[in-house]
Design brief:
Helices cover 40% and strands 16% of the residues. The chain is an alpha+beta fold and 407 residues long. The chain has a 6-stranded mixed sheet with strand order 10-9-6-7-8-11, sandwiched between helices. The chain binds zinc ion. The site of zinc ion has 6 residues, from loops.
């Protein structure tokens, strides 16, 4: 019988792809490749919590993992908080969308009344859908507000109706967003319904739709964002050569959204922007952050093995750079890989890692996206690949590329 340990598949701390291939099918190897196998210095094995990004336990994440269905319902309506509406109306909508508004049907469920009928039209069940969508008193106002194309509410499911109207991009009355008018319609219907019950002196306006539109205009005009600060502007960015004697390492990770396969790539250049070496690594299946960190790992590895003792690493992943620059919690799922990169950075050489924008990291991006072409594992290149010729020449003479930024 074959007797093997995990360590038998490792060579200097990384997976020996040839060895894995002798024993395992490709789809299993794909799952293994991006996992960092650990090494001296990455700490002892420990349990981590899988439901948070940093691996430490929280009650909230535990609850969500037990009741995933409830969480997905909750997220359905998360967009409400991003709508441009008066805050009190957002809170009101949140209650409506979660079917918690105290209509007579809801009050009966809670034992607050015996009678679930509509107080306005005597329909036997005052559900939320009846209150806003089907009650003739609401419909009369709705029909006055409606302009043109929207389908009649009684043909639609209540949730669909709410979502469709709140996510609509329509502008009405020469410049009002329809979701604002719609949300205020719901707000006033509820307000007037309650006033009619509790306030003996309340008299319904003869022109209720006008009140809603007027309120919407007043709020909209008072809460307009100052327009100039939202103008995007364009900056020109280019690759910056290192100083004499320093080797620059550009690295990048890539992930295919459909297959989940990840890869990384990178290259070493001198102070003239001249190519020294490059690599591309096919990492199987994983997350984009894993790909970015593996890119930095292999870039550092290649530079060290090539004898450089003064290096600058550039990555366009600010998350990866931040993880390597600061303290990392030991429950982080990628703790072992992060620690390994940090140990390489702290070796006996001058080494820095910094964030650049994608426009300054194009050559590494090309190598990372090519990783799927090559088989599993790392591939080194000593000659310039054809697909890199143009961007290397552009980088060497400082050709800039435009990037749109918020002013
Ligand atoms: Zn009614």
């Amino acid at each position: 019988m074959l007797k093997l340990n995990v360590g038998d598949f490792l060579e200097e701390g990384v997976w020996d792809v040839n060895c894995l291939r002798e024993c395992l099918p490709l789809h299993i190897i794909q799952l293994i490749l991006s996992v960092h196998a650990g090494f001296n210095g990455s700490g002892t094995d420990r349990y981590i919590w899988q439901f948070t990004p940093n691996g430490s336990f929280s009650v909230n994440s535990a609850y969500s993992s037990f009741f995933p269905a409830e969480v997905s319902v909750k997220w359905d309506w998360q967009f409400l908080w991003r709508l441009r509406l008066p805050p009190k109306v957002k809170t009101f909508l949140w209650i409506v969308c979660h079917q918690k508004l105290l209509t007579n049907v809801q009050r009966q469920k809670r034992g607050l009344t015996q009678v679930p009928t509509c107080p306005r039209c005597d329909y036997p069940m005052e559900t939320i859908a009846h209150l806003f969508k089907d009650c003739p008193f609401s419909l009369a106002i709705w029909n006055c507000l409606q302009i043109g194309d929207s389908s009649s509410p009684d043909m639609m499911d209540f949730k669909e109706w709410l979502l469709g109207n709140l996510q609509s991009k329509r502008m009405v009355y020469n410049g009002l967003p329809w979701p604002l008018v719609f949300a205020l319609y719901l707000w006033f219907i509820w307000k007037w319904r309650c006033k009619g019950i509790f306030d003996q002196r309340f008299v319904m306006s003869a022109d209720p739709q006008q009140l809603i539109i007027q309120y919407a205009w007043e709020w909209f005009n008072a809460n307009k964002p100052p327009s100039p600060s939202y103008m995007p502007s364009v900056v020109q960015l280019h690759w910056i050569a290192p100083t004499h004697g320093v080797c620059k390492i550009n690295t990048d990770g890539s992930r295919n959204c459909d297959s989940g396969s990840i890869g990384a790539g990178g290259l070493l250049r001198d102070n003239y922007g001249a190519w020294i070496k490059g690599f591309s690594v096919n990492l199987g299946v994983g997350s984009v952050l894993e790909a970015e960190l593996w890119g930095i790992f292999w870039g550092l590895h290649l530079a060290w093995e090539s004898g450089f003792r003064s290096v600058e690493v550039e990555s366009d992943s600010c998350v990866a750079v931040a993880l390597l620059s600061g303290f990392t919690i030991s429950t982080h799922p990628l703790f072992s890989l992060i620690s390994c990169c940090k140990l390489k950075m702290q070796a006996d050489w001058n080494c820095s890692v910094k964030h650049v924008f994608r426009e300054q990291n194009v050559a590494a991006d090309v190598l990372a996206s090519k990783s799927s072409v090559f088989g599993p594992g790392v591939h080194y290149f000593t000659e310039v690949l054809d697909c890199l010729v143009t961007c290397l020449a552009e980088d060497a003479i400082g050709v800039s590329r435009p990037r749109v930024v918020a002013a």
